[in-house]
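## retry 2 of 3
previous attempt timed out at serialization; input unchanged, resubmitting
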Amino acid sequence: MVQVMDILKVSHRGGIEPSMDLLFEKSQNIPGSIQYNIKRYYAQHSWVAEDTGMMVYHYNTKKPAENYLELRYCTTGNRYCEERSCAQCGQLPTNNCSGKHQTVDVFTFHFTATFLHQFVHNVKVNTHKDEVLAFKHPNAFTKIFPVCLKKRNVLDGLLNHSYSGALENIFVNAKIHELLLYSLECLVEEKEEGFSCKFLADASGRDRIYQSREILLQHIGDPITIKELSRKVAMNECYLKKGFKEVFGTTIFDFYQQQRMEHAKYLLYEKGLSVTDVSALLGYSSISHFSAAFKKHTGLKPCELLK
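## retry succeeded, writing output
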């Protein structure tokens, strides 16, 4: 466990144990967006350690612009295969892989206070989780927590997926939001109470809410109305809106807009597309409407991300 703790403490600085050989690295550093770094190491010696997570809440009342929330994870037991030339290759970076290298995987996700503001700008702050997201909690802290099955599945999904290009960006962005949600749940010591919406007590009701989220992600460039969405998941519009807000902590509209703007940042900054092209790809009727929505959700003008 000492080795895992050391890795988590230095992962944000790029340091690592000298006995670890880097096999793979992927990172994103788009201004105003989620910054992340994923590193996969081959340990020369066998590792026997529990998967571990760390939440770092950096708070400085004198320098609010520097406030941030960072999530770090270290997982073991996966395998890495260098032969990735065939799309049908069975050598996947999971426990079922027959690849040679057993890995230690280190993840870092960095969220600025400005980025997290979108989740609390219209919320009454009255819980510990809300305080952290809104940077109203007055003291910096670091919290260590175990990696539950939900988090482990998301982390493995980031290592083992078949998406590429724009679809990969949408997938990774959605998975990181899931990690943020699950990690914030670890701030609550007492057992969470059940959903206030009675229909969410039924597994089928929750499944329809999660299905609606997936449908929204599939329609990033093809806007869908709440009425159309409710028909696709066979749920009353009112139930759908209430259930979505309770499960994901945001409205359908705000979630959809936020995902579209994150994808827009990727297309502008990473792919170098023009504002005109991005506006059209996301289904906006005019560039001015897109620019206004982009500025509202990101605090930036689209042209500021063009290289």
